[in-house]
Amino acid sequence: MDTPVCSACKTREAFFYRPYSGERLCKKCFTLSVESKVRATINHYHMLGSAENLAVAVSGGKDSLTLLHILAKLKRFKPKTNITVVTVDEGIKGYRNEALEIAAENCKQLEIPHHIVSFKELYGFTLDEIICSARKKGQTELTACAYCGVLRRKAINTGARQVKATKVATGHTLDDEVQTVLMNIFRGDIARLSKEKPVTNEVHPMFVQKIKPLCEIPENESALYAYAKNIPFQDTPCPYASEALRNDIRGMLNRMEQKHVGTKFAVSRALERLRPALEETAKKEDFKTCTECGEPSAMDLCKACELLRHVQ
Ligand code: SF4
Ligand code: ZN
Ligand code: ZN
Q: Taking all residues of the chain, what is their mean pLDDT, rounded to a whole number?
């Protein structure tokens, strides 16, 4: 049988089949196509101005490192844009240290400054200590990811502010975005559904605007990009990984995508079209200032401070 040839360059051997477009691509054309898709997303959503002090949230996993390498490449066309990597050290024994080393190794290779914000410094406790203390106090309803998600979001925003970032980019892929859409629908949380956007609204002067340049890249392509470019990344899962609903939705979406190619893009496009109506329906939230930590908050006490009360 003949080896399939790349549908783009028509010369090199294809190594990847993209079911939703019918293309077979060689390594080079595949990586170029991912880069140009990211560039198109950035332009489409006006994610970056001509001069930005961009923070990139890098965990050490494949998606955030793929994002970092693509943005470092795009920076060549935007000489007035600076990049700083922000990594959150949640304090997860036997897991986070390896990720921190990998993030640092990539920053060194790309000559990008690396800023680390730790839960211990910000909140006085590591995630391990928070979970251990919450469990001892009988708090079992919330998963480790529920604590981690809230505290990490706040830590990324704080870290981005510390490096004086004008925007912060995160490695959320098409899969992450679509999973979050369905999770919010399944929970009936329209307010959060309307807030899931490729570029967040500027709702408080202390929030650094968040952008998601990989929001149109399927997760398997983000992983393949990292492999094709020999980018070192951490692939051992977090010992707490337990978000039951997200895991169920991930499995369901992957099965749907296999049977009905293009499902993930269809959900994402549907949300795009529904967003103006959703924003109209969801009550406009006036952000206040948390009475305990002074950060922006929807309530008098922010979610992070509320959760930290479980350990105090
Ligand atoms: Fe945090 Fe959960 Fe992710 Fe682990 S899997 S880093 S606990 S959100
Ligand atoms: Zn090719
Ligand atoms: Zn607070």
A: 92
Contacts of 223 (CB under 8 A, 6+ apart): 62, 63, 66
Distance 8 CA to ligand 1 centre (A): 39
Strand order in the sheet with 209-211: 114-118, 82-89, 53-57, 167-169, 209-211
Query: Is residue 148 lining ligand 1, measured as CB closer than 6 Å?
Result: yes
* Residue 18 zone, left/alpha/beta (φ > 0; ψ -120 to 50; rest): beta
Domains of the chain, CATH where assigned: 36-284 (3.40.50.620)
Mutate to test the pocket of ligand 1, among 62, 64, 128, 240 (most ligand atoms within 8 A of CB): 240
Is-contact 244 141, C-beta < 8 A? no
The whole-number pLDDT of residue 179 equals 95
pTM, entire model: 0.93
For residue 127, the ligand 1 atom closest to its alpha carbon is: 7
Across the chain, which has 312 residues, the per-10-residue mean pLDDT values are 88 96 97 97 94 96 97 88 97 93 97 97 95 86 89 97 97 96 89 87 87 97 98 91 83 96 95 87 76 89 90 77
The set of residues, in sequence order, having a beta carbon less than 8 Å from that of 209 and lying 6+ positions away, is 166, 167, 168, 199, 200, 202
Report pLDDT digits (tens) over 15-64: 999 999 999 999 999 999 999 999 999 999 999 998 999 999 999 999 99
